[in-house]
Design a protein that fits this description.
8 helices, alpha/beta, globular
């Protein structure tokens, strides 16, 4: 295996010409319609763009790049992404909180470039900040402690030495605890903190942020140091529920959030 994901080479600045942004697909065997729609997107809408940018949580979980060989969902996704890349679409992938163990082997298998969180993207004359979004949920202190541990290279290195089935079992336990905590935590605590967003934009010297994670797709316009700023939140995907949902963000001439 190559470097642990926390140490994998990532890109912090990119130039885009005609991107399509998605995030939070949470692909798994339990979501067959969502997986099929993702494959349709790659064979359809994504092919009409110069770049596909995935801002985290492509998978419901990722036990390590070496676990992909025995994962039929992972294999379908890798094949579809590789075909998109072969068609000439440039592919960028950011790790999310569910698939933070996506690493260099996955990138090599798909032809993707791994993005740092955050990354600055220049689109024409505008520079925007790209992130998964969980780093800005600063009011959720318990989650932020877990986030720091899970991204520690020493933790990841030790975790990846365990057998794959043991890793999957541990991830399943963490997911179950996470869902239980969500039911008991106020929604505003799990959303981004406005001041954390402002600080990130100031640090990057930009006025537009694109992220996922919160599952509340919207375009937020607010004031930053006396001038307008924007925060675009990508939708999560779930085509297997009673209320199917999903979508993407594009910026041909004007920014447009397409929701299903």
């Amino acid at each position: 295996m190559n470097l642990v994901p926390a140490l994998a080479v990532t890109t912090q600045r990119i130039a885009l010409t005609d991107p399509l942004f998605i995030s939070d697909l949470h692909l798994s065997e339990a979501q067959p319609r969502t997986l099929a729609r993702f494959e349709e997107l790659l064979a359809g809408e994504a092919c009409a763009h110069a770049e596909l940018v995935i801002l985290g949580d492509l998978f419901e979980y990722w036990a390590g790049d070496d676990a992909a060989d025995n994962d039929p969902v992972a294999q379908r996704v890798i094949v579809a992404l590789r075909a998109l890349r072969a068609a000439g679409v440039v592919l960028f992938v950011m790790q999310g909180n569910r698939d933070l163990l996506l690493g260099a082997d996955f990138a090599a298998a798909t032809g993707a470039t791994l993005l740092a969180d955050p990354t600055q993207a220049t689109i024409g004359s505008e520079t925007v900040l790209l992130a998964h979004g969980d780093t800005y949920c600063t009011r959720d202190l318990a989650y932020q402690r877990f986030r720091a541990q899970a991204r520690d290279p020493r933790f990841q290195s030790a975790f990846l030495t365990q057998p794959v089935e043991q890793r999957r079992a541990f991830i399943g336990q963490v997911r179950a605890r996470s869902e239980a905590v969500k039911r008991e935590t106020a929604a505003d605590i799990m959303d981004v903190t406005p001041e954390a967003v402002r600080q990130a934009l100031r640090a990057a010297g930009v006025r537009k942020l694109i992220h996922g994670h919160t599952h509340h797709p919207a375009a937020h316009v607010f004031e930053l140091d006396g001038a307008p700023a924007e925060r675009w939140v990508l939708p999560d995907w779930d085509l297997d529920s009673e209320a199917p949902r999903g979508g993407y963000l594009t910026c041909r001439g004007a920014w447009q959030l397409t929701l299903w």
